[in-house]
Amino acid sequence: MIVLQANRVKKSYDGIEVLRGASLTVRAGDKIGLVGPNGAGKSTLMRILTGEEAPDEGSVYVKSGAEVGYVAQFIGRGDDMRVYDFVAEAKRPVQQLERELRDLEARMSDPALYEDEARFAEIAHLYEERTRRFEALGGYQWETDVRRVLAGLNFPREMYDAPISALSGGQRTRLALARLLAARPDVLLLDEPTNYLDMDTLAWLEDFLSHGEMSLVVISHDRYFLDRVTRLTVALEGGKTRAYPGPYRVYLEMRAAEREEMWRRYEAQQDEIARMEAFIERNIARASTHRRAQSRRRMLERMERIERPPADDPSLWMRFSVRRTSGEDVLEVRDLAIGHRGQALARHISFRVQRGMRLAILGPNGAGKTTLLRTLVGELRPIGGWFRFGQGVDLGYYAQEDGGLPPDERVIDVVWNAYPDLDHTSVRKLLAQFLFRGEDVLKPVGALSGGEQSRLRLCLLMQSGANVLIMDEPTNHLDIPSKEALEAALADYDGTLIFVSHDRYFIDKLATHVAVLKPDGMEWYIGNYTDYVEKVMENERLKRIEGVADETEEGGGVTQEVAEEPPARRRIRSSEARKLEAEIARWEEAAHRMEREMEQVAKEQSEAAVAQEIERLRELDARYRRLEAEYQHALEQWEAKSLELEKLRKALEDWHG
């Protein structure tokens, strides 16, 4: 069922066409990622879908009664309103129904009403109808819904009474998102919703959106988020849209295959044209072959020419090289305390970094990640403890903010002043690698966008030749192609990398180690982000299982019973062990069976994606999710029963011993 649709939409600004016949169809339950280069018109299309702007041509259809929610419509409202009240206002229809029900209940409790049977029946019928609507809107749990969304987006109870005017810009953006999620519209339109969210909050949002019933259209540069949440990708390029069945990674594969096929067909036709033209040129003047040459010429004139595929948009090109190699021991940190004005954000930080490591530092917003990096590069003094860099270390630092770029200087002068040994041509070539071409190099820094300033700072950093890079949120303000170029450059970098990032895809590509910053120190993990998540989940499962086992022992568990009971009971315990072994085998087989089914479904998903069978892809996706949940349950049962058997065997051995 279609709930929202834009059909052949066109939109121009000052005579420049932004949308040239873009179409987008949203069905009930769809999760769509809207992707495209910066400036392609994604936000323009989103505003047209919400009704904030009207198309110059084309149409927008919204299903009758369907509610479309867009986060931008709430920003900046209600400065004096409390945080909780602002989000709870999204539940106003439910609250109104609740008041009506209380009023009807009061009227029905009046004994005089029973004397008028017709009036009583009318009130009772109205009460029943209002109750059904109240239940359909989740009325009994609306306050729970509000608190759940606030908690998920990192608004603890102590912030409920805070006025919105006291919140930072990032907190206001999160609050606007909280209100929108609490409203549960039929269609949710989100433009860069992952900004200002730490990883725990991101994980909650992904779970909320992927399991929610509402339809979703989202613009995001967070590739990990797109892969976790979306099931359909719409690419907007050149003012037109094209739908790809699958999340972002599938879109990349299909688009690459599509472009390869376009070039193959174009080049094959060009070869055929060249052969025909050569034949015509050789034979047109001969009397014996003149007619055949004319026939070929007519064929050539009637041929439907395949357009040359458009070239890829220009992308960054960078390569980080080192002037010299550092020593093996790059950095040692011991019992470090960091903070501002004597107030510590984190203490007891100890770790070592060796040459070639790529360390990703994670932690919630406000944990002190930026403070740690600024302390390491000497911008802040440590509150306690110490750190030292090893022999031959040349530091390069990429700050999260503007990095001290002079706003009044021209782009070309910023680079020239930093590296005066370069000649004019070399500076222009260097800037061209970072997409500053022609008159762009003469712009003042203050006139650059956030993405352009990020590219300029990366240019300066690349030229430094540092063998240790310390980078704070280097992917901020970069579009996806620029992120991919940065990933490729850092993957080939021969030095050492210490970085903070919320971009999990970026961390996955680069990190060899992950460190989580906490108030009382650091937790250290080997591997990338995926390895870190798997280890955390494994630790949580073991804690749950051990917690259940501890409760069993405290309640008169296995060890005590075996030690105290007669031989007949011990035989029963041996049979219990065999029973547990059978259960373990059953759960293990179930897990293996589900693994095989998931592999088969994944194969069918790939086939459906290539064939662009969108409905079948949705069905397969739902089936895969069910299998994934069942597989996880089987693993947890297998682990729980295995631990139970281990404890039982140990108890039996202790008794025999």
Structure, described:
The chain is an alpha/beta fold and 657 residues long. It has helices spanning 42-50, 83-88, 92-108, 117-136, 142-152, 169-183, 199-211, 223-229, 248-283, 290-302, 369-376, 411-418, 424-433, 450-464, 480-491, 504-510, 529-554, 558-564, 567-611, 614-656, and strands at residues 2-13, 16-27, 31-35, 57-62, 68-70, 187-191, 215-219, 232-237, 240-245, 329-340, 343-354, 358-362, 384-389, 395-398, 468-472, 496-500, 513-518, 521-526. It folds into four domains: 1-67 and 185-246, 3-Layer(aba) Sandwich (Rossmann fold); 256-302; 329-527, 3-Layer(aba) Sandwich (Rossmann fold); 534-656. The strands form four sheets. It has a six-stranded mixed sheet with strand order 5-6-7-3-8-9, with helices on both faces. Strands 14-15-16-12-17-18 form a six-stranded mixed sheet, with helices on both faces. A hairpin with a 2-residue loop joins strand 10 and strand 11 (343-354). Helix 18 (558-564) packs parallel to helix 20 (614-656).
